[in-house]
Structures are given as C-alpha cells and as structure tokens.
User: Which sequence fits this backbone?
C-alpha cells in the first residue's frame, strides 16, 4: 500500500513493520513533530467511512499504559489509515518463537500487565475478542501493550458481541457460537498464560471445530500435568480462566491481578502504580535529561520531546 520513502501528508514512510488479515502496518516519521509513529492501513479500503472509523474510535477511547495509544485517523489520496504510537520492541509471539517458554516470574509480569489493559478496556465497555501473543507488544523496557482492536466491539447495554470472530486457539467456547462477552477475553488471557509457561496454547489443533469441541467439553490438560514444577496457585489461576462455562471463570480481569499479586505477596491496590512508576524511574535512570515541560525522559540528543512536542530550550 505504501512504499519506503513515500510521503503521505505530513508522514514519511520509513519501512513496513508487518501485515495481518485486516491491514498492513508501517513505521513512519511525523515530520511536524519529529517523532516516529506506526501507521496501519486497512486492506478493505472500499468500506464506508463510519466502518473504517470503528477501530480507531474504539482504541482512541482507551488511555492506559498497557494499551497502544491511537493518535489519529486520516485519509490521504483516497487511502484511509490510522496513526498510533510506535512501540520499539517485539511482539510476544516473536519472543516466544525465540525462547519458547518464559520463567514463571516473567510470565506473571506480562499477564498482570495485559490484565491491567484488559480491565481498563472492559471498564470502558470494550471487548477485544482477539487477545493473542501476536497482538501484545513488549517494549524495550518490558512494558506489555495490547494492540490491534480491529475485531473489538462495544458491549454497551448488550450481553455479548454476536459476530463469530477471533483466533481459534485463543477463543472461548461461547466465542465460536457468536456470543463473545467480557468473560471471553478472560479465557484468552488464560490461553496466553498457559502458552507462556508451557510453550503452546491449551488446545492446539489445525481443525478449529476440534478446538471448539474440546473447549466446550473443558478438555484441557492442566499445566501442572505438563510440568509439575509449575506452582499450584498458578495452575489454579490458569484453569479458572479456562473454565468452559463463562460464569465459572474470573468475572473481572482485576481478579486475576489480585490473585497474582497475592501469589507474589504484593499489595494489589498498589501493584499497578508500583509497576508503572518502576518503569518510569528505570527510563529516567538511563535518560540523559528530562523534558522541561512534561518531565519525561528525552532520547539521547533529542531536540523535540516525543511526548508533548515541546522544543528543548537552548543551553
């Protein structure tokens, strides 16, 4: 859709970042603010504008450290695209391809962060419907960020989203039937948690109908059966997420956070603030200076703040 070096409005396309079933993503430079951004171009450009705006509007309604920020939705030369914050790092899928299995502590850290993001989305009546490792970005400082809200939906005054959509290995039983609810995202979190510590999703089969049947029957081998070294408490948390019946799962992502915090011996009320502040302080320790306006750490030799756009005063 876009070529390297191409100018699209105020954006200069630097290189492609990847392509999925719904769109292609490019790294670009905002030439006005002098910052890098990610540009997503939907494949279906023929859709009506209000349909193309669904994803950016959903994502723009969310403001959380564990969710990729939507910056803008634009149209240039009849091409519609979305502009998002650029996260320097890798997807959780790429990390798993390299190291296969994470240690328990790292897995808990990522799942806790993902749960914070999911909890924020659910509080805003938004269901993701496609939570999987390829849709989780891990920044260089270890922050997990949920992205790709192309399959998301608002559940405002309705019990579930009726469209049957998602990635089969991470779909809840009811999701196959077109009845995805907030609890369906909880199931997907359980699938990812299982994969992080075992090396594959709980139900892996090339036939999506077999995945559906096994999920509906609750035929999931507990992670402790696969690896006896996995703590009993972690096994119980994962299996509760993966309950076949939605009412038997955690009803809120915050419950997952609380149980993981209890396992780690942390104060769940302070854990989110502590985690976020810890990362900010870590970035500050490695930064050469801070922006005079927003006090965030500036990249080395930066003239313009990538966060607030202020120009550093001359020394």
Assistant:
């Amino acid at each position: 859709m876009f070529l390297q070096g191409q100018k699209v409005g105020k954006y200069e396309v630097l290189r492609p970042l990847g392509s999925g079933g719904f769109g292609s993503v490019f790294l670009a430079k905002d030439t006005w603010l002098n910052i890098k951004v990610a540009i997503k171009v939907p494949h279906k450009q023929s859709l009506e504008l209000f349909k193309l705006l669904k994803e950016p509007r959903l994502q723009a309604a969310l403001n959380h450290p564990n969710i990729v920020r939507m910056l803008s939705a634009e149209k240039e030369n009849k091409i519609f695209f979305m502009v998002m914050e650029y996260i320097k790092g890798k997807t959780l899928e790429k990390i798993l391809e390299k190291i296969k299995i994470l240690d328990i502590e790292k897995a808990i850290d990522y799942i806790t962060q993902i749960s914070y993001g999911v909890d924020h989305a659910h509080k805003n009546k938004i269901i993701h419907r496609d939570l999987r490792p390829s849709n989780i970005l891990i920044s260089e400082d270890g922050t997990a960020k949920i992205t790709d809200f192309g399959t998301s939906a608002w559940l405002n005054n309705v019990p579930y989203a009726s469209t049957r959509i998602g990635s089969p290995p991470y779909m809840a039983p009811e999701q196959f039937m077109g009845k995805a609810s907030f609890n369906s995202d909880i199931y997907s979190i359980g699938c990812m948690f299982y994969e992080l510590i075992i090396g594959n999703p709980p139900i892996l089969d090339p036939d999506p109908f077999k995945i559906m049947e096994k999920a509906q029957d609750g035929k999931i081998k507990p992670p402790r059966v696969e690896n006896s070294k996995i703590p009993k408490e972690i096994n119980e948390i994962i299996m509760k997420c993966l309950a076949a019946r939605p009412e038997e799962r955690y009803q809120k992502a915050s419950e997952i956070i609380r149980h993981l915090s209890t396992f780690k011996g942390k104060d769940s009320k302070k854990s989110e603030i502590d985690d976020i502040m810890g990362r900010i302080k870590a970035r500050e320790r490695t930064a050469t200076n801070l922006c005079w306006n927003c006090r965030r750490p500036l990249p080395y030799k930066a003239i313009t703040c990538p966060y607030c756009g202020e120009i550093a005063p001359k020394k």
Observations:
- Residues 90-264 form a domain with the Transferase(Phosphotransferase); domain 1 fold (CATH 1.10.510.10).
- The chain has a mean pLDDT of 88.
- The first helix runs from residue 49 to 52.
- DSSP finds eleven helices and 13 strands in the chain.
